[in-house]
Amino acid sequence: MGVMSLQDDIIKQKLSKNNGGFKILNFAKFTDDMYTKLSSDHPIDLTRYQVINNYMGRVGLINSGGPFGENDLQQAVVTAVINKRAGGMGLISGRRAFQKPMKEGVQLLNAIQDVYLCKEISLA
Prior knowledge:
The chain has 124 residues and is α/β, with parallel strands linked by helices. It has one domain. Helices cover 42% and strands 13% of the residues. It has helices spanning 21-25, 43-53, 72-86, 94-98, 102-117; strands at 4-7, 10-13, 60-64, 90-92. A four-stranded mixed beta sheet has the order 1-2-3-4, with helices on one face. A hairpin with a 2-residue loop joins β1 and β2 (10-13). α2 (43-53) crosses α3 and α3 (72-86) runs parallel beside α5.
C-alpha cells in the first residue's frame, strides 16, 4: 500500500504493490470479497482501486514514479502505462528526470508524455 497525500484536489500516491488496504488499516467498512472475488494482485487493478477510492475518480490520482536508480526510463514508462490504464491522470517524475543530465531528463519526460498522448494506450 502506498503513501497518500491530498493537495489541490489531487491524490499523490505510490503505485500499489499489494492488495488489502482497508483490511490492513482496519479502516472503513469492507468485505473480504473486495480482496478476493472483486480484485486481483495485478498492478492495473490495484491502481484502479486507488482511483475508485478517490471518490470514483473525482479527485485525480497521480502516482509516484517509484524508486530512483536503475532503469529509470523503463520504470517511469511502466508506471505511466499502469496509471493511465487504471484511470489515473499523471506521474510524478521528480528526481528521475531532474537529477540527471539534461538530455536524459528530457528523454524521460518525453517518454512519459508520449504514454499519456498515445491513443492506443487506453483504459484497461
